[in-house]
Every structure is written in C-alpha cells, then in structure tokens.
Amino acid sequence: MGLFQKLKEGLGKTHSRLVHEIRRIVTGSPRLTGTTLEQLEAALLGADIGRAVTAQIVNSVKEAYESKGNQGADVLSIARDIVERSLSNHSTDLARAESGLTVVSVVGVNGTGKTTTCAKLAEYVKKRGQKPMLAACDTFRAAAIEQLKLWGQRLDVPVVAGTYNADPASVAHDAVTAAMARGADYLFVDTAGRLHTKNNLMQELQKVHRVMGKKLQGAPHEVLLVIDATTGMNALNQAREFHKAVSVTGLVITKLDGTSRGGMVVAIHKELALPVKFIGVGEQIDDLQPFNAADFASALFQV
Amino acid sequence: MFDSLTGKLQKVFRDLRGLGRISDSNIAEALREVRVALLDADVNFKVARDFVERVREKAIGQEVIQSIQPGQQVIKIIHDELVELLGAGNVQLNLGGTPSAILMIGLHGSGKTTTCGKLARILKKEGRAPMMVAADVYRPAAVDQLVTLGRKIDVPVVAKPGENDVLVIARDAIDFARANQRQVVIFDTAGRLHIDEPLVQELVRLRDAVKPTEILLVLDAATGQEAVNVATHFDKALGITGAVLTKLDGDARGGAALSFKAVVGKPIKLAGVGERLEDLEPFDPERMAQRILGMGDVVALVERAAETIDAQKALEMEERLRKGQFTLEDFLAQLRQMRKLGPLEELVGLLPGGAEIAKHADLSKGEKDFRRMEGIICAMTPQERRNPQILNARRRMRIAAGSGVKVSDVNALLHRFNQMQQMMKKMGKLQKMIAKFGGAPPPGMFPR
C-alpha cells in the first residue's frame, strides 16, 4: 500500500466529515453570504485548525470570491493550498549524526504514545537497514519499562533499561554508552510523560539531555515531541513549553486514525515553525509514516 | 486570559452606565469575545455557539446594577450559566449491587489505568473493599501496570496474562469478588477509538456480562473539538453514566468538560489532578467554570493553604504582626510555610490571571531567592534573629560567609525585612480601623 493511500485511510474520517461539511455549505449557498462564511469558519474550527489559520482561509476565500466571482472560489483547493504552504518548507527526514550513533529523544505529556512511537521508530529505521536500540528512561510510570521491553522482544531490538525510581539521566547515560559500544546507528530514548507546566520535571528532562550531550557530542541529535491528535488548543502550549525547555526539533502526531483532525499541527507550525516529522495512523507497528505536507493537506481536504 | 476577557468586556461596556440596560447592540461585541475565549478553551464550536446564545438571552434587558461594572455583570451571568451547565454540585458514584462493577473506558492514553488505581485507593480509604481487573488485553505491559498499582495500594488485582478473551477474565473476576467479599470491582479496559466498531462491541459484551452500575468515560482535559464525537459515540454504544476528567494539573483549560456535559448530559464525577495516586478529587463545577474562563483556582489555593498551614501558629503570628513584634524568626517561619505550599509558579498559576503571569515572569528565580533568604537567616544566631539591631558589620560579614553570599545580599535582606516590618505596623493599624467600622471584606469572587 502506498504511503498516500495509508495516510488517506488514516485521515479518512477527518476529511470525509470536513469535506462533506464544506461541500454542503458551498453548494447550499453558492453566493458566499455572511452566514456561509460563518458556517465555513465553524467547520474549520471544528477541525482544531485554530483561529489564526481559519481566519486566513476564510479571508482568502472571501477575496477570491470578490475578485473572481463564483468560479474562482474553490473553497477546498484554497484551503488545501494554504495548509500545504504553511506546513511545507522544512525537511522532515529523521536527523542523522555525521558519523556514528544518532540519539533521538522522544518527549511529550502523559499518554500521547511516546513508548509506542519509540517502538515504531525503531522498526522504521530497522526496515531501512540501520541498527536501532531503545532506552527505557521512563522510570516513573508503573510497567513502562516492561512495555518497552516487550516491544524490544517483538521487534528483536535491544533495550537498555534501569530500575524504577532510578535517575532517568543515569539510564540515558548507560544507554548511550551501550549503544556506542555495540555500534548502533540509532538510539531512541523513551522518556517519562510529563506535563509541560511542571517545572521540576522539565528540569529533569533537561538533565537527561545534558548528560547524553556530555557522553556524546551533539546528542540528542533529534528531540521529537509526541502530540496526541485529539488534543485541542493546549497542544500549542505543550509545544511552546517543551520547545522552550529542550529545543524540540520535530513533532510526531499520533492517533490520527480517529475522527480527530490533527488540525492543530497547522496552528503549531504557524507559531513555532516546528516541522512535523512523523504521523501515527494506527495501532500496528508499521503505522508510522513520514510526514508529507502536500499529502496531509490533500488528505485533509481531498482535492 | 480571564483578565484579558474581563478587560475587553469592560472596554466594550465602558459607556453602558448611562444607558442603564444591556441591549442587543452593545452586547454583540462582548459576546464575540466570549465566544473566542470559549473556543480558545477548546469548547466545541457548536456548544460554544449555543452557549453564547443562551447568555445573550439572559443578559439582554438586565439592568446594570450601579455598584458593579457591566462587564463584570456579564461575566457573572456567563459564570453562573457555565456552573449550571456543568452540573450543580457533585454527583456521587453509584455503588449499589453486590458486587458493584465500574467500567473505565476511553481513548488511548487518557489515563484509565492510573485512574483505576486512584479510585480503588479512595474506595479503600472510605472503608469499602475494592478490587481491580486488568481487562486491557492489547497494550503491552498494561496488566503489569495495574498489578504494580494494586500492590502499591494493597488492593487485589485479577489478571490473567495470556488470556485474550475479556469475557473470561470478567467472569473470573466476578467469581473472585464473590468468593472474597469484594464490594466494588473496577474494570480497567483497553484504550480504544470510539469508531473502532469491533472493539466497542467487545465493551458492549463486557457490559452485558458484568452489568456495571457505573460506566465512566475517562477524558483527557486537553481533548479538543473531538471530545463531542468521543462522548456521543461511547454514550450511544454503551450508555455511559458519567465521566472522569484527567490531567487537570496541566494548563489545559478543559473546555472538553463543557462539551461533554452539553452533548451527553451526564455528570462529570471525578477529576484527576496529578500523577500521584492521591491526586483524584470529586469534580467541582464551580471551579471548572472558573478554569474554562481562565479565572484561576482560588479555591484550590485556599484549600492547599488550609492543609499546610497550622492554624494556631498562624493566629499567634498574626497577633505578633499586629503588635509590630515581627522578628526574623517569624519571617523564616513564613518563608518555610510558603515553600511548603509548593513551587511558586504553581501557586501563581492558581491565582486569577496568574497563568499568564507565570508564563512571562521567570518564577524559578523567585524560588531561588527564597532559598537564599532562608540560608541567610539560618546563618544567624537566635539572638540575632530576634534582635536584628545588633547586626554590626562584623556579624554581617560572618553571616555572609556562613551562607555563601555577599554582604550586600545580607544587607538587602535586612532592608527588605525592615520595610516589611514598617508595612506590618501600618497594616495592624488599618485592620483595627476596619474592625472598628465592622466592614467585612467584599466577597472575593471577582478580584480587581
């Protein structure tokens, strides 16, 4: 199955509802009145796209209608172009250290799917023929270590783990040492979920990164923030705070296979210019896809 | 956010005084601001629209009470309406039946397993005999997680690693509960999408098998517009009896609560407010309304203060303050009590508009200052603390060396202390005056 197909399938519920809604609005009243625009605004807001980008789309539609009349105002393609434009212009490939080990730290608030994403990422690089390793640095949540270890067994990927309540930074240190010794290409560090408002936990995360940086120059080379697609406007706060604390280099949007639209990606991108690198579109191990702005925008508006 | 909303509303209504009535034209702009505030709080756009409409109907025609500002009056209408919508008072869990079963359902990562543990802990504390059932057969190590939690709170857990049929587990669990006289059986189910028909059907079968008295939807407070779909789907399929709102310790405004209540009409029964097992509280609509509007959580602050501050000591200190006998020892005690309340940024976040302040100011620096001040006072002798006048240059140098700061830091602290003492004396006089006139402070609902 092609990437585009998979993405479309994952985003299926998103686009069908949004597109259906927009079609209904436009065909119901071809002459774009005030109410039509308001309905359009509501539909876009309902996709969590955020007020700023929604306003941008609505304004463009209005302008196009005023300058070119009915024919020029293809709402769907205007929306798609705006979303695509605001999402592209960044490389979305997984970072690679110039030589040797690349350390990827996976961070986020509780319950967004960090552990699963780590496993999926390991599988992703393994398929490319590179050698991944996993580090279980969530020493807080009950059974988080077991969860990652089970994934490691299933995928046949080595897992470095400590004990519960251990200092995550020491586990990270051991993991980097082990990964370098074994000549791994990638080390995916699964950190504990933490709310971005907890200063002490954010400092703990900074320490984990600092320790890894001391062990290996430039590590972590990639800091991926995992965001649950069902999250609303708070996703922006999450991204802002994590970025402030640990310089996020990319986003992973998970659970896009629900009815959620993942529209806040657009809002985050607009404010922080953080590229989306991967999206999770299902529970299977290969349901992690590299992000493609054009595909995402097309799948969202099905043009 | 609330501050900015209040500010905007006050601007809108500035000229309203003369008119005397809230009318159609002058409220339109205000309600637009309200709608934006609700959308920013992740309230579903349809729910927000209906809500604003209701507020409009209530607000129009109201006379502007002379004593308060019209902007605040509108806010009050909105606030009251929100509280009413979120459900008046708190609704207890229904624990009838022997044993009574509780199903925890929800999306992936909303916090079902953790909430199970927290709920079991509360029930046990209330003197009931709860048990938990690991019915999440999909996520790796989900069973281990529940077993670990059960061990921590000393509550039995029925788990059958390797068993894939939830119904088999459920039947065993009920048998276990009967045999061991457990009164409440809490089922931790796997996270699932509301549109995943086969998995939802599995829940339906589980429901029919155990006949639960409560089916609780566990909902992440940060959920966006989706909350409506999730709630309606699960409710249609299963007939949920209520919800648990989790991760309220973050800064999500929790508009999802309003969306849930508006479309499903079932009560929100519990609120998860932290990572520790003690962090589960009865849901409070009043506080939730203030949070959605961004009014801060003054109640939580007061509650926390009441928990940590020794009332007797506080009274003694107040007495001394009034008499102007405030010493460095009292200052130290106060500092320590403040720090016991929690990190500064968390405290400020509970104040109205505090979340905004916390965002802009670097409060961890304030925290550091507190620690430094504590250190300086600790380096003084008891005599010096009680009697700061004796602090000459030599003593100051010794204290600076002892606490690892510069003499100028010690001087700054003493200067600050002097200022405080002056202020306290003035305050004492003021309080006496107020007491004389018998004026109680105005109700603190709308500070500023």
CATH homologous superfamily descriptor of the largest domain in chain A: P-loop containing nucleotide triphosphate hydrolases
Integer average pLDDT of chain A: 84
Shape of chain B: globular
Order of helices and strands of chain B: HHHHHEHEHEHEHEHEHEEHHHHHHHHHH
How big is the Rg of chain B? 27 Å
Query: Which fold name is given in CATH as the topology of the largest domain in chain A?
Result: Rossmann fold
Largest sheet of chain B, if any?
Answer: 8 strands, mixed
Q: What strand line-up does the widest sheet of chain A have? A: 3-2-4-1-5-6-7-8
H-E order of chain A: HHHHHEHEHEHEHEHEHEEH
- The name of the CATH topology of the largest domain in chain B is Rossmann fold
Give the SSE map:
The complex is a heterodimer of chains A (303) and B (448).
Chain A: H1 3-10, H2 12-28, H3 34-45, H4 51-72, H5 75-87, E1 102-107, H6 114-127, E2 132-137, H7 144-155, E3 159-161, H8 168-181, E4 186-191, H9 199-215, E5 222-228, H10 234-246, E6 250-254, H11 264-272, E7 276-280, E8 288-290, H12 293-301
Parallel strand pairs in A: 1-4, 1-5, 2-3, 2-4, 5-6, 6-7
Antiparallel strand pairs in A: 7-8
Chain B: H1 2-12, H2 16-19, H3 24-40, H4 45-59, H5 70-86, E1 100-106, H6 112-125, E2 130-135, H7 142-153, E3 157-158, H8 166-179, E4 184-189, H9 197-210, E5 214-220, H10 227-238, E6 242-246, H11 255-264, E7 268-272, E8 280-282, H12 285-292, H13 298-308, H14 311-323, H15 328-340, H16 344-350, H17 354-360, H18 363-378, H19 382-386, H20 393-403, H21 407-437
Parallel strand pairs in B: 1-4, 1-5, 2-3, 2-4, 5-6, 6-7
Antiparallel strand pairs in B: 7-8
Helix pairs in contact in B: 1-3, 1-5, 3-4, 4-5, 5-12, 6-7, 8-9, 10-11, 15-18, 16-17, 18-20, 20-21
